[in-house]
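[scheduler] slot 2 assigned
[scheduler] job type: sequence-to-structure, two independent chains
[scheduler] chain ordering preserved from manifest
[runner] begin chain α
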Amino acid sequence: MVILTTTLVAVVGFRVYSTNHPKLPAPEKVKASRQDVLRGGAHFLSEPTGKWLLLEFASYQCPACSQTHAKLASFLGDHQNLTYGLILFPLRQHRLAMPATEIAETSQLSGNFWQANTLLWKLGAKLTLPSLALVTSELGVSPSQLRAAKKAVERRLVDGQKLASILHLQSTPSFYLANPDGEVFSIADLDQVELVMGN
């Protein structure tokens, strides 16, 4: 009875949201599992156990991704029951997204991914080859380290691409919520998080 009631509330909530936000698609359950999400090469801010997972696919030269990152810390502070995961998904039209991704992923090997991620998002529209060189210098990432990490970086990117294929990813940023029961929902933006979680 509890499960039926929860499902009914969720379905009604989705319909109401769709009516009130006609420009955004309503949240939708997708054909992927929580385990698929965990195997997708994401970087998690905390251990992804027993909590709701908020997963984002992002590309460093994506303006909308930069806007999301600017409000993300505040959002996560208000949602302590979420574990945030980021999958770097450099798009081909973003010429500098791949070198930026390689810097971030190489930094992961020395435990500095989130520092690198913050520095790279701060560049925003100022993302250039010279600015990337300054970031690598600040992080202490050398050209030899970037070369040595290339295969590990490629493996993580392939994991992300496999998950993106399962999810039929169309663009960045793209968001997904995985509940503790293993279900995964696509959401159009962060405003839909509480709707899916039933708050």
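[runner] end chain α
[runner] begin chain β
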Amino acid sequence: MRLISWNVQWGRSAHGDVNLSRTIDEARRLADFDVLCMQEVTRGFSVLAGHPGDDQFAELADLLPGYTVLGAIGADLAPLKLDAPAAPRRQFGNALATRLPVERVIRHSLPWPADPDSPSMQRVALEAVLRAPGGPVRVIVTHLEFYSLKQRLGAGRPAEGHAAGSGCARRAPRARRECDRAFHRYRAARQRDRLRRFQQRI
């Protein structure tokens, strides 16, 4: 299975112009991919540099015939006042394109701890279970916060815990709830400890 993960920055080049078709052509030159994970895909965000199209998720579906294109929105904002009255909402998130059969899709809103010293936005993880030749494969695409270490650490823990598994799922419902609560307390304590040790190093 060939997988590419790429922060496409809404198809923007080093020169600042936006051309999502060019980005997909470059991905195809890299590999004959079965799965293409993309970060920074937009809808209704033409005010961004280079002025991306109205719906890049729809653009991707047109550019990738034979692929299923999945999307997950992190930031979902009202139109700007300067936009037309019927303008779409401004949405920013991740996409996953695959030519493998898709069994299940889950969209996870990641924790967004307060950090007033850093600009930030809501982040999301897009999870898909794909039917690969060797059996089911879980693929998760996300884009963690760049400016804030606190938010990067906070957002990354749930995906890590979900992938690793807490061992609670095999228990009876009441015991599973108690196990889940204990696991989340343990994971939060580990996160605080890692943040403390990192701050000591810097």
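[runner] end chain β
[qc] chain β: Strands lie at 3-7, 35-43, 68-77, 90-98, 102-109, 124-132, 135-142.
[scheduler] slot 2 released
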